[in-house]
Amino acid sequence: MHSHTPTTWIRQPLATSDPAATAGVVVQGSRIVEKLGAGQVPSVAVDEVFDASRHVLLPGLVNTHHHFYQTLTRAYSPALNKELFPWLTTLYDVWAHLDEAQLALASELAMVELLMSGCTTVADHHYVFSGALEHAIDVQVETANRLGVRAALTRGSMSVGRDQGGLPPQSVVQDEATILDESTRLIDAYHQRGDGAMITVALAPCSPFSVSRELMIDSARLAEAKDVRLHTHLAETEDETHYCQKLFGMRPLDYLEDTGWLSDRTWLAHGIHFNDDEVSRLGKAGTGIAHCPSSNMVLGSGMCRTLELEAAGSPVGLAVDGSASADHSNLAEEMRQAMLIGRLRYSPSQVRHQDVIRWATEGSARCLGRTDIGGLDAGQQADLALFRLDEPRFSGAENPLAALLLCGAHRADRVMVASRWRVVDGLPVDVDLGSLLARHGEAAARLRQAV
Ligand code: ZN
What we know:
Blueprint: E1 8-11, E2 15-16, E3 24-28, E4 31-36, E5 48-51, E6 55-59, E7 61-62, H1 84-95, H2 100-116, E8 119-126, H3 136-147, E9 150-157, H4 176-190, E10 199-205, H5 213-226, E11 230-234, H6 238-248, H7 252-258, E12 266-270, H8 276-285, E13 288-291, H9 293-298, H10 306-312, E14 316-318, H11 331-345, H12 353-367, E15 384-388, H13 400-408, E16 414-417, E17 420-424, E18 427-428, H14 433-449
Parallel strand pairs: 1-5, 2-6, 7-8, 8-9, 9-10, 11-12, 12-13, 13-14
Antiparallel strand pairs: 1-3, 3-4, 6-15, 15-16, 16-17, 17-18
Helix pairs in contact: 2-3, 2-14, 4-5, 8-10, 11-12, 11-13
The chain binds zinc ion (ZN).
């Protein structure tokens, strides 16, 4: 799959998040083959040395939740300054006009933006399948492969439109048989298994308020039969809790359990409004939480109980969420937001910079069901993010690792995915960024004009 890659020593980083990697790592094929502690040198012959003495080395960051298409409706005036439900109903009518050419550009832009922020594994939750978007996931697979980024793509779905009392317009909902058939087709066509997978497919009904109970149950059954993961939005707002109580006579987590989803196969976006008993049940089940701090603050949704969830046993990862709520797709910036909101909720000593880096790497990887990414251990994939501190914002910083979060790192200098450099000197490899920005901007204008 890959052309020959040289054995490379990423030598003596200025700092790293892994105290056992202070002399760097050696990468070969698509993997890390050696992790070197202080004073150690490689035991294998190396073809190349990358001098990392001006770089802070992290495992490639892993994003766990996004909606790439929403990069086309950032800072959209009619939807500004609203809470989740009115925000959604305003935007559904715009998103209903999306086509595949627009989605391709939105996906490319989002993946490039994530890569430039140090993210090596992107995730997307695409759930708008109008007639013009039947091949949305196929388009995203093609884009991820072209960019050489690892991708966890989730086949979203909506089956309850306004005619059935749901929020989305009828033109973007599908019947359950079509959703399940298409999900099966995508898993069979694209889902890779085992270490080093570049593309994985998961099943992702949008949220309790946009799909039927049957579809929740059938999706869980199909995921089990095909051994793929499950993803959805849950417990994002108090509105949702009230909605579930009114419609199903139970709280969101009870509904999740009732439909066969409370397991370690599942990771949930947001996961904010859980009581103590629910936190403990999630932890016991090993259900993951994609913490989306910027989105939660922009929409005023609430603060995720990250520490209690992690202590209970749930993997906790980070996510930028859709660009229409969080507006940016920058996972480095999201780490800073997670640190700030975490300290507001808990205390500075409980949410250290190291804890947040763990969420963005190992925690996120665990949400996606993976141990082959998210770290710098020998045997793991060679997914690396290297940041330089030669911008004014870092000047005078004593602790380089802490500086990434405290001073606000937002752009990696170098990013490697499966041993291949995908960002060099802060720019994506093999991408004409100027042209991409122009085409993406035009696509966004075209979409707005369609309303
Ligand atoms: Zn979302």
